[in-house]
Specification:
Aminopeptidase; 4-stranded antiparallel beta sheet; 35% helix; single chain
Amino acid sequence: MAGLAATARAAQNCAMSNTALLAAVASRRDELITLTQDLIRIPTLNPPGLHYREICDYLADRLKTRGFTVELIRAHGAPADSDKYPRWNLVARFESGPGECVHFNSHHDVVAVGHGWTRDPFGGELVASAEDGARIYGRGACDMKGGLAASIVAAEAFLDIYPTFNGAIEISATADEESGGYGGVAYLAEQGYFSPDRVQHVIIPEPLNKDRICLGHRGVWWAEIETQGRIAHGSMPFLGDCAIRHMGAVLEEMEASLFPLLATKRTDMPVVPEGAKQSTININSIHGGEPVPEDGFTGFPAACVPDRCKITIDRRYLIEENADEVRAEIVAVLEKVKSERPEFSYELIELWTVPPTMTDRDAPIVKTVAAAITKVLGTQAKFVVSPGTYDQKHIDRIGKLKNCIAYGPGILDLAHQPDEWVGVQDMEDSAKVMALTLAELLL
């Protein structure tokens, strides 16, 4: 009986502590808003890679005052790293004795603003909303400076309630996720920052809705196809060979055979949205003929038959497929066109590929975050897979760390859109889930 009573008291004390922890997060609501606004107002545009050091310095100053040991790491030699646009990353660690490490990884770069905004994209404007209380607007609000702010507030609230614990907390702000992550998480993983003996649990606060756990993502295979012809005078095209017409035949064959084939390929991965549960391909760009000068043509372009045409393709594939199969399908299209067009020649250049990844639902981080979602939101967590890749690919493939998920505030459909926003309540709720996760794994 005494043992049962002790167990009951321990459970009651734990519940009381968790209540205090949730209250500590809630009390920081204004601080969460301010932090998110400050981050949005640093325009970390990628490309070209603006203000990366500025945002890392801002975060370093904040986290040092909370006792974190902070490293600023430039990804020397990584793609796009240069003295003009250095790829800066921050890794902050708070260690409290032996135990496991929970790491929150957020990218600090944002995509181009684009057109169609009705608000200042770097204003961090707070707007009341009858629908969800309050929203903060700006480029990167949901993707993913709101998630970065939520993870920092969660960690700080946890440290106030539990100044001593078993293990370590890490927070990183990394470069270039929007362009592949090679100047950010990939570089850090190569340096050992995500090795399983250093970090055991990773949460990436991507905007995938506060009641959903993202287990991974589809695979990606990018390539260029160049069709080759022969230049001639445009008034005598019969003396040349038009590379654009050859590319037209390639696109026509894709429409006739490849797109219907991909529509038949379905996955058991819980990919969202529904349309991404099949294999997809996007014709990312097309260029043919003479290049257009940066300042545009001052008159008509020269009258020439184009001898080169190039497309870039973005193929997203399923866990049931592999990169060799994906490549073979493209080669089959090209070879069929070649068999039908005697003058046809081409070059296929593979740009990069990342295999699909999916964390097991029984992984410790998945089960812990799912339980925290239920406690905070009173609902069962939903499990999803992202249609596009994010930095989990590098943590898995390079770091060899499988215990990794994406979980954070924000609505995925708003990412990269004009008038991007993140809900304040969503950020607060996600921060509570993150704080409870720390308590479960580190106490």
